[in-house]
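Hi,

I'm pasting everything inline rather than attaching a file, because the server keeps stripping attachments. The sequence lines come first, and each chain or strand is labelled.
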Amino acid sequence: MASAPSTRLRILNFIGKFLDDRGYAPTVRDIARGCKISTPSVVQYHLNKLEDEGHIQRDPEVFRSIQLVGRKREAIFEVPLLGSIAAGKPIPVPTADSWTSAPEETLQLTDEVIRNRKGIYALRVKGNSLIDALISDGDIVLMQSASTVEEGEMAAVWLKTAQEVTIKKVYHEANFIKLEPANREMAPMHFPPDEVEIQGRVIGVLRKL
Amino acid sequence: MASAPSTRLRILNFIGKFLDDRGYAPTVRDIARGCKISTPSVVQYHLNKLEDEGHIQRDPEVFRSIQLVGRKREAIFEVPLLGSIAAGKPIPVPTADSWTSAPEETLQLTDEVIRNRKGIYALRVKGNSLIDALISDGDIVLMQSASTVEEGEMAAVWLKTAQEVTIKKVYHEANFIKLEPANREMAPMHFPPDEVEIQGRVIGVLRKL
DNA sequence: ACTAGTATGATACACTTGTTTTAAGAACAA
DNA sequence: TTGTTCTTAAAACAAGTGTATCATACTAGT
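And the predicted assembly:
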């Protein structure tokens, strides 16, 4: 068992702080200096313990290779904010160009949301035309490029004669395409297949207040 | 000017890849091996150029101190998912214990959403009782501990006699507290001050589809 | 008291690694 | 040509650094 506000813990905290401050890991002697330990061997001793306990991880013989386990690194994805989605306007669809040229604005999202899907972009919602999809003015919709979607997936669709974009769950029925609002209190609508055009899959909604 | 798919660029990409793979920076000799360069001095030469150009940054004499500028480090926050929010149940309010003991589940969010606010936690929404706040079943609500909120801020409030939790914009009026739904098509409600209890500030909603 | 496990200390070895020096070829402009 | 700049090359130095060894003290359990 660890005993006091032990040297062990001091070392662990020092490593974290060093990492935050400098961006790379401390050496054995950095730790010794920082924790007022007289000699590398004591640090070495505790580092071995910490590694056994699973708190840190390091590559033998490699300088500055200490890493804190449980600290995630580099799971951030930059998602381009390609424009806005508003009533009566087709949504901006990403072109080949969109991915290479730097967009004006980006969102930073984690792996958890992206789940290594490709072709993700974001649109800011303007107005309350999507209220039946439980999406309000100012929300950000995460899209994935797609011209078809699976049964029941949420998609942004363009209604040709209505000249309107909407977000609904899409089901393919016999001779119609059924569009079902996220808000189940509202009735689904049916359209002939050539009347709707899938603009992309909706994979998330983000509302910052 | 840089000329070809130059050695310079190869080195830069190698550094990035090495960083992703190993979690710490390569040495001059690592780079030489990885880019099929015969000698450290060539790498050294290009590293100096890259540093002049502002692409990398490093501390002289410090091993493995290369960092890519423009790469965010440590912008991920782990937000504990403390429970769920459902109709007719008070929401879980974080205790001192909640922050120290490891929660079963966490969300990873970026600085962009957290904006160095403290006391952030998350709740999963069960059921459709919050539909008038444009929040549906399965959504995740980001909360900040608070017992009072500013005018017009979105808050989770406990309605005492109704025995119900709801999410509304809060306004303090003469003798009443006005609760306004996010969905503006719906009417606001008024309650005497001792009838409502602020459980926390709502700082965001996340819907994964 | 005895022993085992834990923690601290001092010192030294050998390898890693940033850096310097010197050299030479290639591209380009004056 | 001449000179300058950019690039690749080889070798070596000196300091930084992980690691090992040996020794000492403290604590807890028997």
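The two ends of chain A are 45 Å apart (CA to CA).

If the labels don't parse on your end, tell me and I'll reformat.
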